[in-house]
Amino acid sequence: MLVGAERWPPYERPHLSKGYLSGAVPRAKLALRPAAQYEQLGVELRLGRRVIDVGLHDRVARTESGETIPWDLLCVAIGSDARRLDGGLGLRELDDADALRSRLGAGGTIGIMGAGFIGCEVAAVARLRGLEVRVDETLGQPLLRVLGPDLGGYLARVHLAHGVDLRLASSTEQADLVAIGSVPRVIEGLESDAGILVDESGRTSVPGVFAAGDGTRFFHSLYGQRIRVEHFQTAQRQGFAVGRTMAGTPTRYTEVPWFWSEQYDLNLQYAGAGLPWDEIVVRAELGRPPFSVFYLAGATLVAAAGVNDHHTIARARRVMEAGASPRRDQLEDPGFDLRRALA
After folding, report:
1. Is the distance from CB of 260 to CB of 327 less than 8 angstroms?
2. How far is Cα 190 from Cα 198, in angstroms, rounded to an integer?
3. Which of the ends of the chain has fewer CB neighbours closer than 10 A, N or C?
């Protein structure tokens, strides 16, 4: 049984700030599965029902309308809330995207608070639709914490070249879109620390209760610590592992997190968990796609980001999952196939 507050069947959220927002992806293409397939798979959908008590003690969930739902195993997959300010739209759910599409359709100037992935993607869509765009970012570059000053500075130049009024080290009290990150939703009674704490298979601190998605901090054996990742691919793949475990086949989620962003004609891909690094190594010429940036902690490759260079990032991800550490000269050389580092 799948219970959710939204009235829509499960859908792919990445499109909300990309193709759906621009109009390239119609609503009918958002669905994760055809509606009829849930019945075929033995999944009962109960949509538009907000759960107000999951019933950790008596194993009976209760909805806002007073409905009671007994359960034997529970998976909490409630995600995160966008940080919101009075008067500004957020972008987290389909209804948010519809409201933002209406705002873009009105034309004029749109103000965006935050130059993270959501802010940058919406800025690109708005400019391509002919709107004037102002973006205020409190840090010195877009995506500074994840990508660092070099690649962040490149993205800043891209947006400026496309006519965005990008104001760095700046804040504003008002914006049409507030894109300043998210806050994980938690459940009273489940151990949490900036997210619901789970092991590699999604087990929480309560027997029979699991959690999956971007509202969790899960243990990752590759990094030797718990991490929280706010991107669709990881939520989906971790969810696969949790589902298999709940169904009786214990499965650990051990993949290197990966996500992508579309901005203008650029495809940015990143593999890693956003952990600290000491230095970067650039493959090809930074600023002239295709190129990639590798992030090293000592001699260990901990992350990689590429612009229009998806093959390199896919191979770097395999290298990190294998625990291999290519030499700096191999990382720099566009002619070196990273798969050779796996030998």
Report:
1. no
2. 10
3. C
Judged by phi (left if over 0) then psi (alpha if -120 to 50, else beta), residue 248 lies in left
Q: Give the structural domain span for 288.
A: 265-342
In a domain, 60, yes or no: yes
Q: Six-digit token pair at 44? A: 């009962």
Is 159 inside a domain boundary?
Answer: yes
**Average pLDDT of each block of 10 consecutive residues along the chain (343 residues)?**
95 93 94 93 96 97 96 96 87 95 96 96 97 97 96 98 97 92 94 97 97 96 93 94 97 96 97 94 97 95 97 96 93 95 83
Asked whether residue 85 is assigned to any structural domain, the reply reads no
Vertex 117 angle, CA 224 and 330, to 5°: 55
Provide φ and ψ at 296, rounded to 5°: -115, 135
- Give exposure, 111-140, as e/b (b: 16+ Cβ within 10 Å): bbbbbbbbbbbbbbbbbebebebbbbbebe
